[in-house]
Design brief:
This protein has 64 residues and is mainly alpha-helical. The protein has one domain. It has two helices and no strands.
Amino acid sequence: MDKVIAILFGVVGLVMAIYYAIEFQKGKKDSFNSIMWFVSFELINAITGIGIFIGCILYLIFET
């Protein structure tokens, strides 16, 4: 059961990372001059999604 939950979290994290990375690319074109795009909501969420995905992969590797 733990593996199923880890896989679900991994998929959600990956989808979240891809979605927010695309949103970040869209938003970057509009406000390229400001420094705020670098620490934007989309970028933080994309990094979080990647972190969740990597964490789930590591859990699946080391749990078995």
